Amino acid sequence: MEDKNIVLIGKSAFWISFILGNICLFGYIFTKKDFFVEGGLMVVCWGFILNMIITLVLIIYGISTQSKLDLCLKAIGIMLINIPVAIIYTLIGINIVRI
To answer: Is the pLDDT of residue 23 over 90?
Structure first.
């Protein structure tokens, strides 16, 4: 696998999760429709599973191909940026739904 493809995997996973989370959060804020809350919960659950699978694959690939380990860790680091964002969005969503 080429170097740019490894980092592209991490960036793609980051942006897909980030955009879907934004759609759910701001969709609910602007429309107050409950399906955005349900969608947000699904994004968190399925996003966690999918990102964990991608992370495991990158770790295994990086360990098996030592020259690519740094790139795999960089891609995983990019994906990890979503964790605090997801926590903040979840807390905002919980507080908005309570009101």
So the answer is: yes
